[in-house]
Fold this protein.
Amino acid sequence: VIGEKEYWGRGYGSDATRIVLRFAFDEVNLNRVYLWVFSFNRRAIRAYEKCGFVHEGTARQTIFREGQYHDAHLMSVLRDEWLAMQKG
């Protein structure tokens, strides 16, 4: 989470996500990392996609915000996908 708007859009979130993924796959030896993100958080979704996460599913109308319901998306990246991205 990048709290200060002046720092949004500078790639800090993507950089932090890559560091966490490197640790998860290279140090902890995980095979899969997943997360949930709300549909209105377009910047986060794009940052996760840049890091290799893919959409796996949608939980419909999970949160009520600003007068309407919003979905939550399940996204994940697998070790093989991550390694392929690092080589390419």
